[in-house]
Amino acid sequence: MTHAYINPRYQTTKETSAFIPSDEEQFETYEAGHIVDLLMNSDHHNPLFRAPVGEDAQHILDIGTGAGHWAIDVADRFPRTLVRGVDIFPPPVNWTPPNCILEVDDVLQEWTWSQPFDLIHLRIMEASFTPEELDRLYQQCYQKIRPGGWIEQVELTIDLFCDDDSLPKDSAASRWGEINRKAAEKCGRPCDLFATLEKRIQEAGFVDIHVQDQKWPIGPWPRDKLLKEAGLVNLQHWLLGVEGYSMFHLTNYGDPVPWTRAEVIVHNAKLRSELKNPHYHIYNKSKRVWAQKPSDDSQNLSNTARRADQS
């Protein structure tokens, strides 16, 4: 797989291009997001995933592993399970647990793994695939998960929210989601996965669908101690990540015409300033969906999504 750098943090391969960079700053963004996810689920006995997969699991796959944080943590927690993390670019990892393998591969190509997986995990795939590619990806997941195995995915909104009107309507934060959504649609990889996640997983054939909704605060504004800590880390997640998530889209597919690099930098500086303003009570939404591949004797499992809203 041949790699080249574009614009200038982004990489492309012969087969595909990535709208998210693959460099140290982006890997720090992944780490911050991983920590927020752990903090927001720290009340659960296993904050890494909700699917009822135990220590007897043999094979787990992490698609879009990024810097490999989730795969490494799962391998540490389940030392008898072989955990594979896969991405189109190599993670900056010098050491992994002996039961963790980080691989460079394109999951849109034919899968070469022969063993069935007990769990396939995905996180923050928004705007990474065309609708047709997503359908193919979920079908590949379904085929490679053992009967009775699970799929689990976590997605975040690109929109930023505020419940108490402390954020001005004309702010950069208020317009962030719409600006990037239009660019992603022009790119052909729309930002609709958060809204369609349960439907796509169900249409792939999975059943017993569970949904967990959360609000992830951005900044230390919550009064709750845990949410305040999560908000501080999520603030860093956003401060580090805004350029990586927007530069490619806006300079290539900005509406109505592509933006200049300078315009993106100025806009993102305004956004960062607003995110750091303690008077703006900003958050983004998180959705976690986990569902099961029917086993031979479980065809009667409910296909209705079970939702557990959390604020």
Automatic annotation (TrEMBL):
<dbReference type="GO" id="GO:0008168">
    <property type="term" value="F:methyltransferase activity"/>
</dbReference>
<dbReference type="InterPro" id="IPR029063">
    <property type="entry name" value="SAM-dependent_MTases_sf"/>
</dbReference>
<dbReference type="Pfam" id="PF13489">
    <property type="entry name" value="Methyltransf_23"/>
</dbReference>
<protein>
    <submittedName>
        <fullName>Uncharacterized protein</fullName>
    </submittedName>
</protein>
<feature type="region of interest" description="Disordered">
    <location>
        <begin position="291"/>
        <end position="311"/>
    </location>
</feature>
